[in-house]
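Work Package 4 report. The design task specified in the project plan requires that, given a folded chain encoded as structure tokens, an amino acid be chosen for each position. We show below one input record used in the internal validation round.
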């Protein structure tokens, strides 16, 4: 069994939490945010490993994605609750892209205590930490412009550049790492979605679209996130006959999105070098 433990740079609260998340982009984003809020983080890449890790040591809280391979977040949570002993109940907070009616209620019914949507709003995460870890709500991480949280990009935009700027302002290397992972994973997930549509596998379409929606939202790839959300809804209702047009739109959007992300990253890096030399 492998896991990643990341020590916070400023461990204000001395708390250890478990993040259960299979998407590598979302792993980096969530671990970075939790670290900035003064938390140490162990990482489990799927629900089954998350269950094993939760039984091996006491965590102050568990942040749980809902849709994962091997064992999803609902099943993992139900099993954690079944095995809890001596009256101990570890707070489990859903961190998910699900946005269908009833999703929040399903999380709570499975035994989760709270719900934070992806892409993660630092203020919402701070509030959940305050509620369940019994600490004062920390301020938003350095580099996060909370005044922009409620603003929405143009409906036709490929990306919302403020998303990466907020995440990476204090860590320029994180931008490069996120873009590199997103480029590789998005191509694989788009191909997975296409194959699943061809064979009429609704579950596989929803699983891949859910994962890509989450990482796209984290990267600010708003058009891809919107398309994936529509594919998730179609797959959940079994209407894949209507998915061909969305598949084509997603495939046509992938390369321009990656190109714009890379272009903006290069412009930011060039600007930083210029500023450093003057």
């Amino acid at each position: 069994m492998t896991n990643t433990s990341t020590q916070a740079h400023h461990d204000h609260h001395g708390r250890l939490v478990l993040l259960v998340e299979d998407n590598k982009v979302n792993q980096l984003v969530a671990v970075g945010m939790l670290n900035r809020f003064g938390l140490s983080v162990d990482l489990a890449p799927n629900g089954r490993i998350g269950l094993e890790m939760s039984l091996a040591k006491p965590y102050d809280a568990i942040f749980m994605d809902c849709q994962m391979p091997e064992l999803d977040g609902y099943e993992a949570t139900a099993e954690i609750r079944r095995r809890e002993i001596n009256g101990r109940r570890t707070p489990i907070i859903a961190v998910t892209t699900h946005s269908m009616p009833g999703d929040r209620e399903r999380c709570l019914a499975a035994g989760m205590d709270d719900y934070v949507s992806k892409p993660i709003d630092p203020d919402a995460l701070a509030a959940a930490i305050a509620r369940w870890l019994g600490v004062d709500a920390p301020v938003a991480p350095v580099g996060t412009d909370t005044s922009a949280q409620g603003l929405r990009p143009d409906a036709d935009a490929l990306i919302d550049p403020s998303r990466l700027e907020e995440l990476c302002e204090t860590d320029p290397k994180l931008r490069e790492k996120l873009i590199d992972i997103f480029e590789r994973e998005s191509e694989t997930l788009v191909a997975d979605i296409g194959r699943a549509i061809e064979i009429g596998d609704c579950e596989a379409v929803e699983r891949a679209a859910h994962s890509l929606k989450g990482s796209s939202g984290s990267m600010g790839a708003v058009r891809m996130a919107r398309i994936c959300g529509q594919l998730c809804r179609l797959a959940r209702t079994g209407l894949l006959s209507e998915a061909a047009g969305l598949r084509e739109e997603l495939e046509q959007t992938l390369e321009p999105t990656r190109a714009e992300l890379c272009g903006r990253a290069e412009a930011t890096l060039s600007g930083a070098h210029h500023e450093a030399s003057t």
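The chain has two domains: 4-141, 161-277. Validation will be extended to a larger panel in the next phase.
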